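Render this sequence as a predicted structure.
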Amino acid sequence: MIDYILTLIISFVGIILGGVLALIAPEELRKGEKYLKILEWTILAFIVLSIFYFSKFFLALAISLVLIVLKIFRKEYPALAFILLLSFFENFLFLAGSLVFIYGFPAGTIKAKEIIAAKKTKNKVKILLAIAKNNILYIIFGFILLPLLFAYS
């Protein structure tokens, strides 16, 4: 139980650190955006492959399709919370948590670039708070699913 909560919180920190990375090296954002998007999709592919490896085929197929559709609409983090819960039951929690953490680096960097490009703010703290606010559904959804752990543990 506690390992799920810690993994949920630590994996969320990845997207914040991605935003910090964007703020540390803003001159690299233009040149590296293409590579960040490739890296983001590659890590997402590893997440999908790990679901297929550890879960039943039809469940994995359904989750993967939902995740890809949500990724296209840039709202993938709630689905990642569900994957984290599934990984708890399928015994690949730390792999999934690590992949979500690593996925947060390019995702957070790209989101910070979008916030900076939209000229919403130049304040670094506000940029990081905006990234956290835009993806807080990951934590909320993760804690809403928490009673399932009690029911099946």
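Summary. Helices lie at 2-24, 29-54, 57-72, 77-90, 93-117, 124-134, 137-144, 146-152. The chain has a mean pLDDT of 84.
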